[in-house]
């Protein structure tokens, strides 16, 4: 029945600034309205709703102000330089500085590589790719570089 996530929404303070930011990430404008704007993440499959308003100042919590985009492994490896070329700075996440990202999230038996940054309103944005669904042992989070050196595959 369920095939994936079709839409998610984020609060923004300046819709034009937010459209420009998400278009830099490769999203395509689908609909621009007075209160809500939609950008295609994957046309016909998933989109992001941006709601302009005063409620942007709600405190950050990953359940309401976080979005993770799925990317391929080859793309996660070059994501930091790709973001920086667009003027988007990678931020610290889970105690890992931008220099130690992408990082590997260990949720045994699954492992995912991810990199974190914020949109203009401080919404947490993540680029993420699965790297292992069959981990045989519990491990701590580490950088993707450490993962490649210790585990030897991705």
In short:
The chain has three helices and nine strands, in the order βαββββαββββα. The protein has helices at 15-24, 73-85, 144-150; strands at 7-12, 28-32, 36-42, 46-52, 66-70, 103-107, 110-118, 124-132, 142-143.
Helix content bin: 10-25%
Low-confidence stretches: none
Principal-axes shape call: globular
Please indicate the count of domains: 2
Structural class: alpha+beta
The appropriate CATH architecture of the largest domain is: 2-Layer Sandwich
What is the overall pLDDT average? 90
- Terminal Cα separation, in Å? 30 Å
Summarize the biggest pleated sheet: 5 strands, mixed
Summarize the helix and strand pattern as letters: EHEEEEHEEEEH
- Radius of gyration, CA atoms, in whole angstroms: 16 Å
The proportion of residues in beta strands is 35-45%
Strand order of the largest sheet: 5-8-7-6-9
Question: Which structural traits does this protein have?
Answer:
154 residues, single chain, Signal recognition particle alu RNA binding heterodimer, srp9/1, 2 domains, 3 helices, five-stranded mixed beta sheet, 19% helix, 2,3-Dihydroxybiphenyl 1,2-Dioxygenase, domain 1, globular
């Amino acid at each position: 029945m369920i095939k994936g996530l079709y839409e998610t929404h984020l609060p923004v303070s300046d819709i034009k600034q937010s459209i420009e930011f998400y278009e830099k990430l490769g999203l395509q404008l689908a609909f621009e309205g007075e209160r809500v704007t939609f950008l295609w993440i994957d046309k016909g499959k998933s989109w992001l709703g941006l709601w302009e308003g005063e409620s942007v100042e709600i405190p950050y919590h990953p359940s309401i102000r976080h979005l993770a985009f799925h990317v391929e492994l080859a793309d996660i490896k070059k994501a930091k330089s790709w973001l920086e070329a667009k003027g988007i700075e990678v931020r610290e996440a889970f105690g890992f500085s931008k220099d130690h990202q992408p990082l590997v999230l260990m949720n045994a038996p699954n492992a995912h590589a991810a990199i974190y940054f914020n949109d203009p309103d401080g919404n947490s944005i993540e680029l993420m790719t699965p790297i292992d669904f069959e981990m045989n042992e519990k491990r701590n989070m580490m950088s993707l570089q450490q993962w490649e050196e210790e585990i030897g595959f991705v």
